[in-house]
Description:
Layout: H1 11-19, E1 27-28, H2 37-41, E2 49-50, H3 53-58, E3 63-65, H4 80-88, E4 92-95, H5 102-105, E5 116-118, E6 139-145, H6 152-165, E7 170-173, H7 177-183, H8 194-205, E8 213-216, H9 230-237, E9 241-247, E10 252-253, E11 256-260, H10 264-276, E12 285-292, H11 298-312, E13 316-317, H12 319-322, H13 325-332
Parallel strand pairs: 1-2, 3-4, 4-5, 6-8, 6-9, 7-8, 9-12, 12-13
Antiparallel strand pairs: 10-11
Helix pairs in contact: 1-7, 8-9
Amino acid sequence: MPGAMRDASGKMGFGVLRYSPNPIVCVIDPEHVGLDAKDVTGIPRSCPVVATVDDACRLGADVFLLGIAPPGGLIPADWYREINQAWDEGMSIINGLHDRLAPRFSETGGESDQWVWDIRTEPEGLKPNTGAAAGLAPKRVLFIGTDMAVGKMTAGLELWAEARKQNVKAEFVATGQIGITIMGSGVPLDAIRVDFASGSIEGEMMRYPDADMILVEGQGSLIHPGSSATLPLIRGSMPTHLILCARAGQTHLARNDNIKIPPLREFITMYEDLAEACNTFARPKTVAIALNCGHLNDSEADRATREIEAETGLPTTDPVRHGAARLLEALRMESQ
């Protein structure tokens, strides 16, 4: 999709550019040919922008990643020409969208080392949730959000990296296609049948009994009418702590301006109340706010974080601009 490097629909590519440990040969975007990806996106990852799949192959690319997340998560019909071309030229494919590509290419053979990774595929052996995560010793940190695409994964990965840097044994549970691509593991929550959704998160949590903290990538928002993933995340992870993610200055849902975002203190209380469920479960504590200030300059971002911190009384930072040290400090000060 031309131009997605300057559009929120390019978030899959942005996440991989910012966090993937794997080398990136180039980005295909006909509107920005000849530029460097870091100059177009602002992400400090240098690679050329090219026009075509042929250009990418000439540079030595051997994996074709669909870096765009269009509304609805389906592959647009006009993408298949480039996808087919990439496969025919011997490239493997990473697909984070709902339409599966493996069946499309399973009968065409391809090279012996060629593969298709359809990330949004339900794993085998899933079970219903039992609440077992509540008995885990590590701090269990769930990232919650005021809206879709406000930086829950980004805040989680920044905190995970900061924790590792400070020798804190932190694990990151990826729950969406971008996080899974970056980490190489996780559960594609929006591809899992509802009866097994919270159980799939519990299964991931139980892999890390010896961690200091388990960071769980959030999805959606309780106030978004199209969000179905938030409750399974709460029940599956049994969080001890929450980190709220919000976009500075946003007052309504991005794709539904009829729905107003409530005051953040009320929003936090709603999440904590739901997680506690009338004293049925332990009540998690919201310890900090990760504020997405990507659309602001430095002085505007500083002012926005100060205002939110004054409004909520919680440590507030833009984890991309200012780092995640304050988020980690807030968690380390909390006893479980």
